[in-house]
Amino acid sequence: MPNSALRLIPGAIDRFGARVHAVEGRQWNDATPCTEWTIRDLVNHLVGEHLWVPHLLAGETLEQVGDRYDGDVVGVDPVRAWDEAAERSLEAWDGADLSGTARFSFGEAPLTVYADQMLVDLTVHEWDLARASGQDESLDPAAVGNCLVYARANAERVAGLGIFAAPVPTASTDPAVQLLSMLGRTV
User: What would the mean pLDDT of 13-21 be, rounded to a whole number?
Assistant: First the structure.
């Protein structure tokens, strides 16, 4: 059975893209729940992540890709930059063979883990972007469910990476609130 994250990634890319397209011109420098990032910074992060996808799924190493996606990758048109990166990413994910491994900044990992991490990144940052730009904050239940399973199973490792803020306690039974809280968001 194919990795469920792989099946959910195309929809997550589309949903994030719809949110990018809804950002109004004056909002690009607004703050996000990611305390260090503006909306533009957040989109820049996702564009960079999705520019890497074709390379990593094709078996290229970090060294081979180098620093070509460091810094500002959205230029003067963040929407166009997202659309182009998303298209390349979708092509790479379509029918991708996730049986191998790749070397990431945190070490070597199965490509199935990469797919799970990309789905988490897309889903949580979709909410960040929605919150920052005043859009509907609801998330896809299937994506949330997959991300919550991954986040719970990897909570200690994820916390050690320092890529998300510390968990925020919650008594909510809503899976989206649980996921977002686990990954440092105050909902």
Answer: 98
